[in-house]
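Need a sequence for this fold. Nothing fancy.
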């Protein structure tokens, strides 16, 4: 095969009638290679179709006007005159080859066995390049489908988020109006819908980020494929230049773009179910397109981006096979964490439904969870009062759903709505959680001191304690909440304490570190710590 020249892409064999014609074709090809232009881009500049341009570059002696136009299009101005004169001189020689004067002298080079070998090799390359071009076109079609899907998803999700914002605002107003009717079925229904709408908004925003990331990934792949298609098309044009017997003439046309898949059916249930169905479809499309784009990135040796594989309802998002994992919003009650607020609500309802009305929540793990839950209530201090002795399943005030009731250490009782605890925590609850985190070092040091002095027994009952399950309590002095409230009052109120974002442990920290140290010292001054068994600690104010 004719060797590659400066451009790096191969040409088909030259079929010239004489040595000068061959040299002219080689010269013109070299100018094309040096210019970096494709045959498709060059054709209008030489006022000639791509096919006829290929014929002239394959050894047929071109017209003088073609040579002049090609030199002008491919050679820099300061060299054009000289290169034009050289090419026209070769054309003159090719048009009037020197006659054979000496008997037995070799005949001027022309097509023969060598050309047949070159032609066969070039046609084999044509088939290979055609296959690569076909695959690139299929890949571009897949990228276009994924990009179109992402474009549509972005528009759908932006509209959905706007609608969900309005729905959340409406449900908040509805809930606030019903707060005067505690534990009514209407209040529980409004709060349940609010929790669900907030989760749906989180999911919609997460899917929007995925769709926008896939838009960017698809645009990158589209540019890569466009460049690849341009290069492969030019390579095929070069290999077919002047070849009237190309095997591609018998091959099927390149594949057309496949039709886009239709979206799945949408649920006809009420508003919340409709939104869940749409989000599930959005997540499915995002997953499918993400798989497609990552596969094509791998095939094209492009780095994949960190697109999350899936986000099904009430399940934690998975990290992609390649790329960095994404942070998934979580909901915490004490030290326990759930992927969503809805999942946390399911855990609370499972406890409520496991007991009959009037039963005491007596399993330690159930009591501990409900004990931590009440700390999230907007009126937690009033509900807890002097301290919690136990929780009882209360009969429904209205409707069919039972609830929880607190039995205080002084024997008084009060009910509370667990859904109010699952609403977004107010600033006071967030500061209280941060305060517990800031004083963790104090309680840890106290337990270490007790362990070092071999006094790991309950200060209330004398029961030996498990060294792996410490329970440091404020039971001998003011409760933790009272100490914290006193400190907040000295700073001007809860709203004056600013917090940073939550840490990996699930707690925020004081933004003002000097104020944090003041709080730790205040706690050390007023807290009277002691050790209790797990059961004893669960029934004392924290």
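Here you go.
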């Amino acid at each position: 095969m004719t060797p590659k020249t400066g451009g790096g892409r191969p040409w088909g064999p030259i079929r010239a009638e004489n040595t000068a014609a061959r040299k002219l074709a080689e010269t013109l090809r070299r100018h094309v290679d040096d210019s970096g232009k494709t045959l498709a881009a060059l054709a209008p500049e030489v006022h000639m179709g791509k096919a006829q341009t290929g014929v002239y570059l394959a050894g047929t002696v071109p017209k003088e006007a073609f040579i002049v136009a090609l030199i002008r299009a491919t050679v820099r101005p300061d060299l054009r005159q000289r290169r034009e004169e050289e090419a026209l001189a070769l054309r003159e020689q090719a048009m009037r080859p020197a006659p054979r004067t000496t008997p037995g002298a070799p005949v001027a080079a022309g097509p023969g066995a060598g050309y047949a070998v070159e032609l066969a090799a070039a046609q084999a390359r044509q088939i290979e390049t055609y296959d690569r071009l076909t695959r690139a076109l299929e890949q571009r079609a897949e990228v276009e489908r994924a990009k179109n899907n992402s474009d549509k998803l972005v528009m759908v999700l932006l509209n959905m988020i706007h609608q969900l914002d309005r729905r959340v605002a409406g449900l908040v107003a509805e809930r606030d109006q019903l707060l005067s009717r505690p534990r009514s079925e209407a209040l529980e229904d409004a709060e349940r819908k609010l929790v669900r709408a907030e989760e749906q908004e989180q999911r919609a925003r997460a899917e929007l980020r995925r769709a926008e990331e896939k838009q960017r990934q698809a645009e990158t792949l589209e540019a890569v494929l466009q460049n690849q298609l341009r290069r492969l098309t030019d390579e095929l044009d070069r290999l077919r230049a002047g070849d009237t017997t190309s095997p591609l003439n018998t091959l099927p046309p390149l594949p057309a773009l496949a039709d886009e898949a239709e979206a799945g059916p949408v649920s006809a249930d009420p508003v919340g179910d409709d939104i869940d169905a749409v989000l599930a479809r959005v997540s499915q499309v995002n997953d499918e397109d993400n798989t497609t784009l990552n596969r094509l990135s791998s095939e094209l040796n492009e780095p994949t981006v960190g697109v999350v594989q899936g986000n099904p309802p009430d399940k934690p998002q998975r990290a992609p096979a390649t790329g960095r994992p994404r942070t998934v919003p979580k909901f915490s009650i004490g030290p326990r964490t759930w992927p969503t607020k809805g999942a946390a609500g399911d855990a609370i309802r499972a406890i409520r439904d496991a007991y009959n009305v009037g039963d005491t929540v007596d399993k330690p793990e159930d009591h501990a969870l409900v004990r931590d839950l009440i700390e999230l209530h907007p009126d937690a201090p009033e509900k807890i009062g002097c301290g919690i002795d136990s929780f009882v399943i209360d009969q429904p005030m209205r409707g069919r759903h039972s609830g929880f009731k607190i039995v205080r250490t002084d024997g008084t009782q009060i009910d509370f709505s667990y859904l109010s605890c699952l609403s977004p925590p107010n600033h006071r609850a967030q500061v209280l959680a941060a305060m517990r985190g800031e004083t963790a070092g104090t309680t840890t040091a106290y337990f270490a001191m007790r362990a070092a002095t071999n006094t790991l027994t309950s200060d209330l009952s004398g029961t030996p304690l498990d060294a792996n399950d410490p329970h440091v309590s404020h039971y001998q002095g003011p409760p933790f909440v009272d100490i914290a409230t006193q400190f907040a009052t000295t700073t001007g109120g809860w709203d004056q304490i600013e917090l940073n974002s939550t840490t990996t442990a699930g707690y925020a920290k004081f933004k003002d570190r000097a104020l944090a140290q003041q709080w730790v010292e205040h706690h050390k001054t007023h807290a009277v710590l002691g050790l209790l068994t797990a059961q004893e600690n669960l029934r004392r104010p924290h």
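For context: Residues 1-7, 105-110, 255-269, 304-329 have pLDDT under 50 and may be disordered.
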